[in-house]
Amino acid sequence: MATLKTALVTGGGSGMGEAACHRLARDGMAVGVLDIDGPAAARVAAAIGEAGGRALAVTADISVRRQVKAAADQVRLAFGPITVLINNAAIESFTAFEDIDEDSWDRLMSVNLKGAYIVTQTVLADMTTAGWGRIVNISAIGAQSGATHMAHYTASKGGMIAMTKSLAIELGAQGVTVNSVSPGFILTPMSRRAIEANLFPVPAEQIYGGYPIPRLGQPEEIAAACAYFVSEEAGYVTGQVLAVNGGAYV
């Protein structure tokens, strides 16, 4: 395996994905910044380059396999086999369960769960061929605790946790670890939109103000958890869910 590892981060153009891209680049990896928003991915890749790192912006809708394959091929051409994957890209929705229509349900599942399946399948052979790989699936606190008006979102994220455990069992003997980071209330563009639109059942301050650590989390704190899971030191850790949520799930 080459000394320089290549990582692919989905949803790398903003929020937790952006923070993960910067962290992995600082840790010495070449990074494929994948996002459906091409200019956002380009901005992150440029910032990494300006800081002395190596990054390439690629654009894809992760629910479309041919787009994912094309993006992964671009990253491989630039940096070599992809042996680190952060499945972070996701969309959210706040809707009472009785009002969720099938199109909304299908779209969330298609991006949040099917997208992770497609991206993982697309890069997995790079890892098994190398006999070394790291996969981190970003789930959500709602997958563990439930969340009002987010049944479709939490169901998709619960699927991420189940897939994490199953893949950990299936791939461990091939040198590939699979873990999940479960964020709590993190200050991201997604959470800002929800806060500004008053989409939570109570004010946001009331939610995170009741946590043992009573504040919003930062994207960099999720990136730090990802950095541990993809490190050499975490080679004997697989199938785990690390909740980075200020103690909320306690």
> How confident overall, as mean pLDDT?
93
Radius of gyration: 17 Å
Strand content: 15-25%
The tally of domains stands at 1
CATH superfamily: NAD(P)-binding Rossmann-like Domain
Cα shape: globular
CATH class: Alpha Beta
State the low-pLDDT regions, or none.
Answer: none
Number of helices: 9
Spell out the helices and strands N to C: EHEHEHEHEHHEHHHE
**Lateral arrangement of strands in the main beta sheet:** 3-2-1-4-5-6-7
Overall helicity: 40-55%
Give a count of the beta strands, DSSP E runs of length 2 or more.
7
CATH topology: Rossmann fold
Largest sheet descriptor: 7 strands, parallel
Class per helix and strand makeup:
alpha/beta
Distance between the termini: 40 Å
Q: What's the architecture in CATH terms?
A: 3-Layer(aba) Sandwich
